[in-house]
Design brief:
Length: 243
């Protein structure tokens, strides 16, 4: 495996850069001197990061956004961070919700990786996918989300193998509870009618509060760095022990 491109001169594409983990990771890459493109449906990306409007669940929008980011022919780092959650008993999941979650959490990363591949090949780039503890271990009341994130975890490992002869590394991070707006959407749905024997699993983590977005951002940056040049197909549980 060849040396991964050093910080400071890389073209970095991050989805979900307008909030939470993606925002924090975009700041970290920017501070290293990289050229950072933030793909999102919201424009609130950090200063110094180029906003590229993109609904990752829309393949045409993904293709257009990648073409724009790769204007000089290269993408050194693709970080698939954008995501949405689903929470509730299986009976509550509608077809519309299933499709929406899978469009953003699984189809989006797939077509981003496909569109970015020629540009990753041009500079032996690397991919980091943000999956979830739910894509790594059973999680109650999140079946549609877990199916999508489990798909992303397995997609990561399969693509890592497929691209290993070319030296393109593909890795995943499976965060536990991170202090971002997405968590509120889950926690306000944890109600007394859920079975505490399994719902309590959602709270199982090392003492010290929720993981900080920048802590996951640092793991993204590290996986994309030359220090991780011999790591591919890895699924890193950054989850405080939840899994
Ligand atoms: N926060 C957690 O506890 C936690 C735990 C495990 C995994 N994750 C994963 O981390 C990733 C980031 O989540 P976060 O916690 O930072 O949440 P967040 O809500 O703060 O950020 C998600 C970002 O994705 C963007 N986004 C949503 N739909 C999009 C779409 N269709 N196209 C483009 N962008 C879209 C949002 O606008 C937002 O900027 C997600 O994939 C999530 O599943 C989060």
């Amino acid at each position: 495996m060849q040396q991964t491109n050093p910080p400071g001169s890389r073209v970095v594409v991050i989805t979900g850069a307008a909030s939470g983990i993606g925002y924090a990771a975009a700041e970290l890459f920017r501070d290293l001197g990289d050229t950072v493109h933030g793909l999102d449906i919201n424009p609130t990306v950090p200063d110094g990061v180029t906003y590229v409007e993109c609904n990752v669940g829309d393949r045409a929008a993904v293709d257009a956004a990648i073409s724009r980011c790769a204007a000089d022919g290269r993408i050194d780092v693709l970080a698939n961070v954008a995501g949405i959650v689903q929470f509730g008993r299986i009976e509550t999941v509608t077809e519309e919700e299933w499709d929406r979650v899978h469009a953003v959490d699984l189809k989006g990363p797939f077509f981003l990786m496909q569109a970015a591949l020629p540009h990753l090949r041009a500079c032996r780039g690397t991919i980091v996918n943000v999956s979830s503890v739910a894509g790594n271990a059973p999680q109650p009341y999140a079946t549609a989300y877990a199916a999508a994130k489990g798909g992303l975890t397995q997609l990561t490992k399969s693509l890592a193998l497929e691209l290993s002869p070319e030296g393109i590394r593909v890795n995943a991070i499976c965060p536990g509870t991170v202090d971002t707006p997405i968590v509120e959407q889950v926690f306000h749905k944890i109600t007394d009618d859920l079975d505490t024997r399994v719902a309590d699993r959602l709270m199982m983590m090392l003492p010290g509060g929720a993981i900080k977005p920048a802590e996951i951002g640092e793991t993204i940056v590290w996986l994309a760095s030359p220090a991780a040049r011999m790591i591919t197909g890895a699924v890193i549980a950054h989850d405080g022990g939840m899994s």
